[in-house]
């Protein structure tokens, strides 16, 4: 069985963060592991508080995974402070894992900040160069690239700027734009576009975490980058289409809809 590690924050409401990552790994048939960098008290409507795990404990969790099981891919999510970024970067350099997918999480779905504003330079200097794939949404890409994005051409321009910071591939996600949900992948040579019809729903909590984890899973399973993104795009679109109307805010996506529809529905009555 392929092995995938998520290094990210914990979402106690279960729709995003570590919880979404592990669900996504399981849905793809890979073995999921975690290194928790922050405990986030949040739900579908708001972020109540964040407690960061110490850099030493972050490093020890990663050591525990690599001294025993190892990985075929790594997904990195929420890193709120430069000290957390430095700890993760140190271990990624030490173990040199394949298929590192980094989701530069800056905001929760409800707009609450999950990364300290002053951490952007640390992200650029210590984390981005370690990514086989960076997956910013449009607001994140604007912050990192330092430009305003109004069009697909702007998304491509941002991808070029960000790739120049040292990562191998950039996927600028268009979920915050109008019209179809168009994502742009850039590998330094050419652009790939992935588009689906926009789904009219507020229940999109954890979509970024889910998407990046699905890409990591597909890379671990041996697919090349464009195919991994295409498969992950289909998976997250299906999860959004069957999102769960739970909570008072943006409800979670349905990570196991295909399993429930085609498997458990035959046994649960």
Automatic annotation (TrEMBL):
Q: Which UniProt keywords apply?
A: ATP-binding, Kinase, Nucleotide-binding, Thiamine biosynthesis, Transferase
| Listed EC numbers | 2.7.1.49, 2.7.4.7
Recorded catalytic reaction(s): these are:
4-amino-2-methyl-5-(phosphooxymethyl)pyrimidine + ATP = 4-amino-2-methyl-5-(diphosphooxymethyl)pyrimidine + ADP; 4-amino-5-hydroxymethyl-2-methylpyrimidine + ATP = 4-amino-2-methyl-5-(phosphooxymethyl)pyrimidine + ADP + H(+)
Q: Which InterPro entries match?
A: HMP/HMP-P_kinase_dom, PM/HMP-P_kinase-1, Ribokinase-like
Q: Which Pfam families match?
A: Phos_pyr_kin (PF08543)
Pathway per the UniProt entry = Cofactor biosynthesis; thiamine diphosphate biosynthesis; 4-amino-2-methyl-5-diphosphomethylpyrimidine from 5-amino-1-(5-phospho-D-ribosyl)imidazole: step 2/3; Cofactor biosynthesis; thiamine diphosphate biosynthesis; 4-amino-2-methyl-5-diphosphomethylpyrimidine from 5-amino-1-(5-phospho-D-ribosyl)imidazole: step 3/3
The name this protein carries in UniProt is Hydroxymethylpyrimidine/phosphomethylpyrimidine kinase
Question: What is the top EC class of this enzyme, as a single word?
Answer: transferase
